[in-house]
Amino acid sequence: MPGRHINDHQMRLYMKYRLKEGPAQAAARAGFSAATGYRIDQDRRLPSQKKAPRARRRPDPLAAIFDTEIVPLLQSAPGIRPIAVLDEMLRRHPDLPGNVRRTLERRIRDWRALHGEEHDVMFRQVHEPGRLGLSDFTEMDSLGVTVAGVALDHRLYHFRLACSGFEHAHVILGGESYVALAEGLQNAIWALGGVPREHRSDSLSAAFRNLEALAREDLTTRYEALCAHYGMQPTRNNRGIAHEYGAVKNMCCSITN
């Protein structure tokens, strides 16, 4: 309509119809004039991409003190909260506007992102179908299962595909061991009717505990041979890095809750 600016949605509609129709027809379907359609053909940027960044409309009230007073305060006390910084600045400068809190919080956030303490970088995991399967054991002592009045010493073996969420679990009598892992993994593969390209386990520290170096090496070799038999690549998550094993750990926690 005359006098109204087009939005990103209208332009995307126009570009969709423009693949098969002329500018006039595509513009009519998108709800604006043919002249606008011809202008879009000359400049394919979305309306939101053409807007110039908004400039500051009033003087920066922190310009004179941020680098000289606030930054040294942030460096000497990295965990200090912005509200505490504001209180200190108001004490030092009574003429500072009281409504500067949001500006101060934004400036501190930006400064810490560039100059503050380093943080772990997390990348979103994209799981491909059939690529990764994971195994883990879950302690079941908290459930208090008994047989004939005697506490049952057992745990649960749990297998899960990271992408599809296929799960298989069964009871393991006793503690973690290579035999328990091999039995659980083979039963899970038979129930699945196929194998993932990669199988991931934790560090297997419980299975290797109290073993001599040669025995640990032997178990590692047997585990790798088992994966090679099924055509899987064996991998392990890094010890203490919980998010690498979250696809199966989170489900194990939900089983015991």
TrEMBL record:
Residues 47-57 have a biased composition (Basic residues). Residues 39-59 are annotated as: Disordered. It comes from the Bacteria. This is IS21 family transposase. It comes from Paraburkholderia terrae.
